[in-house]
Amino acid sequence: MNGDDFRPVLAAALRGWATHEETLRELDAALGDGDLGITVRSGALAAADAVDAVPVDAGLGAVLAAAGRAFATANPSTFAALVGGGVMAGAKELPDQAGYGRDEAVAFGRAVEQRIQQRGKAELGDKTLLDALHPTLEVLAGADGDAAQLCRMIAAVAHDRVAETAHWESKRGRAGWLGERSIDKPDAGSSAYALFLDELATALEACS
Predict the structure, then answer these.
(1) Nearest CA among 200, 190, 197, 180 for reference residue 27
(2) Is the pTM of this model over 0.85?
(3) First to last CA, the chain
(4) Least C-beta-crowded within 10 Å: which of 4, 65, 128, 208?
(5) Which fold has domain 3-207?
(6) For residues 155 and 135, is the Cβ–Cβ distance under 8 A?
(7) d(Cα 57, Cα 40) in Å, to the nearest integer?
(8) pLDDT tens digits, one per residue of 28-84
(9) What is the separation of C-alpha 2 from the centre of its chain, rounded to a whole number of angstroms?
(10) Cα(91)–Cα(89) distance, rounded to whole angstroms?
(11) What share of the chain is helix, strand, coil (3-state, %, to 5)?
(12) CA-closest candidate to residue 20, choices 4, 32, 38, 47
């Protein structure tokens, strides 16, 4: 898949992600200030518009960089800055070539993970987005299938991790202030990631 092929897929996934505003607001309100829903909605719609505006024949890196930049600047929130910055860092890892597959997706994801970890100062086990992102990349690196199948597979992994890590105590951000009261409440950032993968898988299936 090249940049032009992926552009409508990504834009559709982002617009689908925006529809989960209320679900994410409720999840975030249980552990934080409840603003994740609007952060995702406005950021996702801004990113989709930015993807549409990228010139034809732009490489996949340029498409993803535009999406990350728009997501990061749409809201003055930590989640927007971390995710948008991570996507921009990942975009730099994509070589200028005719097509992209699983290996490039893993390289992109690992760069996203590294940037989020560096800027957010979180570690695996802190009950953050990283605890869903990292295992999906591990599974993706060793999996086979077409893009839609792989995306649906790692979406399931992400949802499983949301359920598993819900039983942990949050260690970062506003959720970390709750201490033991955060136990048995799903991490909203991880949930947002899992929902985005759902939307991306649906968009990939629609174009296959």
Answers:
(1) 190
(2) yes
(3) 11
(4) 208
(5) 1.25.40
(6) no
(7) 28
(8) 998 877 899 999 999 999 999 999 999 988 899 999 999 999 999 999 899 999 999
(9) 20
(10) 5
(11) 75, 0, 25
(12) 38
